[in-house]
Amino acid sequence: MVDMDAFAKPGKPYYLALGMEGSANKLGVGVIKHHLGPLDENNRAEILANVRSTYNAPPGQGFLPRDTARHHRNWVVRLVEKALKDSGVKVSDLDCLCFTQGPGMGAPLQSVVVAARTLSQLWELPLVGVNHCIGHIEMGREITGARNPVVLYVSGGNTQVIAYSRQRYRIFGETLDIAIGNCLDRFARTLHIPNDPSPGYNIEQLARKGKHLVELPYTVKGMDLSMSGILEYVDGLAHDLFSGKKSKYLYDEEDGERITVEDLCFSLQENLFSMLVEITERAMAHVDSNQVLIVGGVGCNERLQEMMGIMAGDRNGSIYATDERFCIDNGIMIAHAGLLAYRVGYGNELEDTVCRQKFRTDEVYVKWRDD
Amino acid sequence: MSTVVSTATSSATPTPLTHTLEFKIPFENEKQSIIAKNSLSPDPLLKPDELKVSFSNDGNVLKITFRGTSDRMIRVAANNIMDNLKTVLECFEVFD
């Protein structure tokens, strides 16, 4: 059993951490509370504040690092103020200040860490740099109560199947090119549908109205996936559809009806999610687990949850997913994972707070678990 | 804030840092000047051969000196520092 309280302040029965996230187009700040002792079903983390501001590019465009960094700089101090006010926590009662150290886009990450460094010096609080993926995993485990699940991490920048083994979150399979969220976002740009609230959400709504399954390339490579070719293909179909072409692959084989944008969204989702289900099932068989935890922005997708649920059900297991407050990037998961690390002695000196665009999930030594 | 720009030509070194720019930023007190330095200085430069940035504190004044191979190199780095400086100042305004 790991001693989670070796660094507790004498006489203080709890810990408080503030977390700051800004690795992509969401800026999030959260405040979390842990009580002494290991976290379990009777000792849950308490969410005191979780605020977010999302930068959305106009329809047909993606968010660029420079504009996103400017958005984060504009909002970061106001969001910290709001989170502190929501939580009712005094700065002097905080134990540490956690920030996303990577992976993510360089400029947005850096715009947030500058605020974190300044505040840590003003408030005389230790800084804890958090791996963004570990933030998702730990928050997902805490919210759902899944003890040792296979983790499917699906977002705009990452697609990984992860399982815990000997104090590392090990990557069993991942994308070889673009992330699944990136694939969906870019298809949304091709369709010129809004990025608000998120491009993936709008694709999901269209997909519900799809009736015809269009055959797309299926590209599972061992435990890994490739998605750029599928995007290229479905983009091509959409262009042909918009330009009014009459090719036979734009008509359904069975009823002869012309395929629609909704059909394309539906088919893209079905195809990509089947690939995810396949590699996740293989990872579950390999580590002999029957729990799947879905985290990351694409994890909000109810069709993905449904498909994964059917697979897990067939294996007498179950899926664990969270809602958009925790699936989509947020500050609370950074506060939570940072606080876990802080409680076993992690911390960053100022000169050691440089953010990294590439920061693998399995680089982190998970000292707070020993199962 | 005061800035001094000077340009010199012809130097024998392989990558002459011929261009310089200096910021002198007065803060309310020495503590703020030191915090600003510590917040801005950790991030490494993309091309250390072509640009050097040094930070020093003199009382409540933070001095940032850019030395680079071209005005372009310096402009990019200086703009970035100014953007980050705004965040630091906003933190002071609200929380100090």
How many structural domains are formed by the residues of chain A?
Answer: 2
Global geometry of chain A: globular
Low-confidence stretches of chain B: none
Quote the distance from N terminus to C terminus of chain B: 21 Å
- Treating each run of at least 4 consecutive H or I residues as one helix, how many helices of chain A? 10
Number of structurally distinct domains of chain B = 1
By CATH, the architecture of chain B is named 2-Layer Sandwich
Number of helical elements of chain B: 2
CATH superfamily membership of chain B: Alpha-D-phosphohexomutase, C-terminal domain
- The counted number of beta strands of chain A is 12
Kindly provide the name of the CATH class of chain B.
Answer: Alpha Beta
Number of strands of chain B: 4
Strand order of the largest sheet of chain A: 3-2-1-4-5
* CATH homolog superfamily of the largest domain in chain A: ATPase, nucleotide binding domain
Strand content of chain A: 15-25%
How does the major sheet of chain A shape up? 5 strands, mixed
Task: Quote the average pLDDT of chain B.
Answer: 89
Helix percent band of chain A? 25-40%
What does it look like?
- The complex is a heterodimer of chains A (371) and B (96).
- Chain A contains ten helices and twelve strands.
- Chain A is α/β, with parallel strands linked by helices.
- In chain A, strands 3-2-1-4-5 form a five-stranded mixed β-sheet, sandwiched between helices.
- In chain A, a hairpin with a 2-residue loop joins β7 (159-165) and β8.
- Chain B has 96 residues and is an alpha+beta fold.
- Chain B has one domain: Alpha-D-phosphohexomutase, C-terminal domain (TATA-Binding Protein, 2-Layer Sandwich).
- Chain B has helices at residues 30-40, 71-95; strands spanning 2-7, 19-26, 51-58, 61-68.
- The two termini of chain B are 21 Å apart.
- In chain B, 22% of the residues are buried.
- The chains are: A alpha/beta (371), B alpha+beta (96).
- Chains A and B meet through α1 and α2 of A and α1 and α2 of B.
- Chain B: This is DEKNAAC100598.
- Chain B: One of its GO terms (biological process) is tRNA threonylcarbamoyladenosine metabolic process.
